[in-house]
Amino acid sequence: MLNATQIEASYKEFMGDLPKWVHDGIVTIDLQFLHDRGLLSNIGSEEVDDLTQYFHVIESVEKVTLFNDQFIVWIVPKVVDEMPVTYVLIALHQEDKARLEVVFTTFGVYNTPRYVLAVLQHFLADMLETEATLTLFEKNG
């Protein structure tokens, strides 16, 4: 498992040139995104879903870092044009290195912990499904 120093080095490398690492671009979370993925009904309920993964947490003034043996997640609050924006970077933890997979942003009415966590859970589940499918294809050769 990566240690805190390696995780921080990966974060600095990714943030140093984000366009280089995010080939699909930064996903902006809006009403259309939430609707297309069926996340509106979950977010609107009184019951808050927990993340399906357990994480170690490192908090700093700049960001919150979540990590386990599969994922590293950086939640980074910023102010852009006087508007609070949250960037979330999700990396797969593989062979003692991080591979950045998804970056999304929330702002305005979507920049709340409930939306950030619901979208994070969506991407984690999607990544787990994709990895399982790739593993199955590799085994079946």
Task: Tell me about this structure.
This protein is α+β, with helices and mostly antiparallel strands and 141 residues long. Helices cover 40% and strands 30% of the residues. It has helices at residues 4-16, 18-21, 31-36, 40-44, 113-140; strands spanning 27-28, 56-59, 64-67, 71-80, 83-94, 97-107. Strands 1-6-5-4-3-2 form a 6-stranded mixed sheet. The longest helix has 28 residues, at 113-140.
Taken from the alpha-carbon principal axes, the silhouette is globular
N-to-C span: 28 Å
Helical proportion, percent range: 25-40%
Radius of gyration: 15 Å
How many DSSP H or I helices?
5
Unreliable spans are none
Mean pLDDT: 89
Strand order of the largest sheet: 1-6-5-4-3-2
Portion of residues in beta strands equals 25-35%
**Major pleated sheet:** 6 strands, mixed
Provide the succession of SSEs. HHEHHEEEEEH
**Helix- and strand-based class?**
alpha+beta
Write down how many β-strands occur, each being a DSSP E stretch of 2 or more residues.
6
